[in-house]
């Protein structure tokens, strides 16, 4: 089987790494990939959806997997399906679950999926009125895609009103913020739960927990994610059962009833409040960095999971996971998340420690290959050091041992990933 992976981050590298170990997979292509994915397969400099479909047809590629949200929202799946090509991911219509926070919140309300009290509006006066009914903190969200940065948690009503005003005026997020959602803040602990769906059936992956803030103890600004671990002991069978019955089943049923069956990854952002799972948001792709921890926990061939979901046959798949834990630590560039940093050469020490061999690896993200053939840190989140173990503590220890083997100028990372569980 030949596979094309759309995207360029650590998530796509991790999927490639899982497929590389899969005996059924012969060749992997990345479009566009990053400076390190050329070690796993071939990078393609093609971005146009029709041109990518032409390549898939001409080269007999059996499966395309879409990593990031933007091409999904823009309709890459529709283009491929219209040409009879097998692709993993939701249609543009189904991708509205992430592409529009207003669509998502209204969908949850229509199908009685538990979520925070909210209004959606493009009128400042209406936003102010609702803000006055809430206690701080207050959540203000831009409707459209903002690269994971369109959510403000305001610490006062005045701050919430300011955030709403800046979004609605187009100053904060341009077009993406000209309609907004204002909602009550939920106080609990957050989980990332992923269901691989084929339109009717689904497989739930081990629940993960990511660390959004830049600094230890969840301080500093929000980022795209500074690390994650899976599975989290904060989820028990009761919470999984509630998610099944109250969230995943009604969502898949509702999507089908509304004429947009959901295929791909349903990423469920959950807040557990007094033992009850309340839905914060849906995304329509793997989280990054959660994907980097989930892929090495997958015991079954990765191609089976993705292919059977793409062709609507998850029922016949036998999907198993290792009884292990994974911890991933993001190593970021010097000025992340404030501004771009100077490119810096990445040097990885030779691994001689028996503890690390086979139990730790790097998933590369914001890296480029120089003309000298060396790897350079050129993005914000540069790479993820992933450790595996029989306990979270063991996995964390291995991840940080690997962090110590990686060097580039200005590197920064948190030193407390998985602290909630430990």
UniProtKB/TrEMBL annotation:
The gene is purD. Belongs to the GARS family. InterPro entries: ATP-grasp, ATP_grasp_subdomain_1, PreATP-grasp_dom_sf, PRibGlycinamid_synth_ATP-grasp, PRibGlycinamide_synth, PRibGlycinamide_synth_C-dom, PRibGlycinamide_synth_C_sf, PRibGlycinamide_synth_CS. The keyword Membrane does not apply. Pathway: Purine metabolism; IMP biosynthesis via de novo pathway; N(1)-(5-phospho-D-ribosyl)glycinamide from 5-phospho-alpha-D-ribose 1-diphosphate: step 2/2. It is an enzyme of class 6 (ligase). GO terms for molecular function: ATP binding; metal ion binding; phosphoribosylamine-glycine ligase activity. This is Phosphoribosylamine--glycine ligase. It catalyses: 5-phospho-beta-D-ribosylamine + glycine + ATP = N(1)-(5-phospho-beta-D-ribosyl)glycinamide + ADP + phosphate + H(+). It comes from Sulfurovum lithotrophicum. Its cofactor is Mn(2+); Mg(2+). Keywords: ATP-binding, Ligase, Nucleotide-binding, Purine biosynthesis. Its EC number is 6.3.4.13. One of its GO terms (biological process) is purine nucleobase biosynthetic process. Residues 105-311 form the ATP-grasp domain.
